[in-house]
Amino acid sequence: MTLPDLQADYMHAVFGYANIYGEVYQWTFKQDDSDIEAAWQDLYACIGQNNFILDGIDEATAADDGRFSQSDLSELDLIKGRMYLMRALCYSILAERFCADYDAATASAENSGLPLIVKYDPDEKPSRATLEKVYEQIDDDLTEARRYLANVKGSANATTLNIDCVTALEARVLLQTDHFPEALEKANSLIGNTAYSLITSQEELQEMWTYDKSPETIFQFYASKTELAYAWGKYFYSDYYNGQQSNMRLMYPDYIPTTECVAKFEDGDWRRQVYFFDCSMNKPIDGVYYYPLIKGHSAYALSGLTIVSKYPGNPDLRTSSTWNYYNSFKVFRLAEMYLIAAEAAVQSNGDAATPLNELRKWRGLTTPLENVTLEDVQNERYREMMMEGTRLTDLKRWGLDMKRNGAQSGILQNMENGK
């Protein structure tokens, strides 16, 4: 999920990064690159499973033979609703990753979209549909999901799909397809939902990204010690000793943020302290020294190094004292709804200041913005959604170039001879 952001402009690879995600990062990948294939195949595998379940339920319930009680049928309807929603989510991600930005003027062009498969057939290999047809299918699936999940209320930190997840995806898709008033309406409906609220302190923000708990999280994937998540941040925030040394950490990331990325976060912005960690050989934190190591040089960054710490690993998901860096991925967050509302408002001459300033307020930024512009929204989205996999899609939607700016620099000290 974070791969598109590595492909974009947040990060630089360090010397000696062993080419992890290298082809995508360098934009030298081809259609058979393993990381590209994995994204395509995994999403279509999910669609295949959704189709298999939907077809199976329809087949099993086609004959009204009394095999299923009303309770059984109601439960099957909930499953259908979640399958339609997952299929819509998969196709929306595929459209963002593998198609051009949506433009009503070109969306009906031949082969502009994706292969559409809505019945289970492992041998079916259709050609690409138009992008217009893809989004029509997403809309149809969301309509069905809303029908079946209408009475399934959402709650903060939900790990099962519910009606609020339908609304969140609708808002996202409507923004992506330039239906700004409708996107604003959907986003506002979640902003006004008392089941969710923005965090109110830096400590709560830290808890959201460390312990996967927050009043902002609309939906995240389930994870436990027996059903583990993914190590989303391992290549940004990684200790050579995996937390086994009591008084030191040897931090050796493969990717580090650009200087422009770090500079985007103002003084007082809580995200600066949560999304980043400043490693220093001379300033212990709670008695622990954090030594920044540059892999390819086998040398310490003597002048310090700023690394991304947004996914530090949830201690509650560790199966031993060894760090495993697992965090639940947050698919829908209330903060994104504030950003959708602000962008949709800017694009439709509405009130963008209210949602944008409310989000900024609860990120520690107390000076409100006036006469909010699209650039203001773009900058706030850059900060808030860092390394959540949306950056390339955002750049495409805005028609902006991708450029990685300044790399961190400083003095190195060889680990072996101290020179």
Provide an overview of this structure.
This protein has 419 residues and is α+β, with helices and mostly antiparallel strands. The protein is 42% helix and 9% strand. The chain has 14 helices and 10 strands. It has a 4-stranded mixed β-sheet, with no helix packed on it. Strands 1-4 form a two-stranded antiparallel ribbon. β6 and β7 form a beta hairpin. The radius of gyration is 23 Å and the shape is globular. The two termini are 40 Å apart. 41% of the residues are buried.
Brief sketch in words of this structure:
This protein is α+β, with helices and mostly antiparallel strands and 419 residues long. 42% of the residues lie in helices and 9% in strands.
